[in-house]
Specification:
- Helices cover 45% and strands 18% of the residues.
- 41% of the residues are buried.
- It is of the alpha+beta class and 312 residues long.
- The chain has two domains: 188 residues, Jelly Rolls (Sandwich), CATH 2.60.120; 113 residues, Arc Repressor Mutant, subunit A (Orthogonal Bundle).
- This is HTH araC/xylS-type domain-containing protein.
- Pfam families: Cupin_6 (PF12852), HTH_18 (PF12833).
Amino acid sequence: MADTDPWTMLLRAPRARDAFLLRVVMGGPWSLLVADEAPLTVMGQLQGNAWFAVEGGEPTLLHPGDVVLVRAPVHYRVASDPSVQPSMTIGPDQSCTGADGRELADALAQGVRTWGNDPAGADRLIVGTYRSDTQASRLLLGALPPALVVPAAAPELIGLLNRELAADADAGVLDRLLDLVLIDAVRTARAQLTSGAGGPVGVALRAIHSAPAQPWTVGSLAARAGVSRSALAARFRHEVGDTPSAYLTHWRLALAADLLLDTDATLDSIAARVGYGSPFSLSAAFSRRFGVSPRAFRTRGQAEGRGADLAG
């Protein structure tokens, strides 16, 4: 039987190709609104601190070594303080405009793969984006919550990536280091979201992971965790970055994708194993998430090989 743990799948999925990588150096009160629509962004706090928040969400303070994973189409803010309004917007293809609409990308360039408002700024981050969904794998994107803050995920790797960026290393070297940062963050998140998670959110996560076919609702998960529906929903969104229902859907569809690639199980069987009442409901949800039907996904995987599909 195939390993149906999506975390195992995620750890072998990413493979960047000429990823966009930049050191961001900021000083004084500052705030950026990021709306670049990148399939997956990996942001590591290198020095100082920054506040991260998805649009409409609660801010989280980032410390050196923390990693943030953000997938499209989430827009988010990064700032020296949550009260500071964005003075710059990062758009598609790494365009940068000020509040008055002026293009600022060239004006804020600070040397080799470095950008910001102050070359001596105390707040420093590394930002890497996967340019297409096939590079990070649609499976990975489907299983991750829209935004995930992973504390102390990869301090050594972030430091190494910073040094290689400063030396303007070969793109292939930088791509592999970005992959390693992502893999380390996913590995750390796995520990936090499974065996290492505590409290009501940990109980809910373990229930979802161990029995995805169960007809879980926020109410049944809250009852399992011993808290109210509203309390679980609020804590789950704060700690995981998604609602319990949306996370359950992501988990089920990642399992379904893995079973399609690794087994010859029928769609009826897969639907039952991952909690869908019929192959038709699974097919509709799968197509919405991955942009292709389960049948087409399996056919392509068989033609190209699983490794090629994941690598993009």
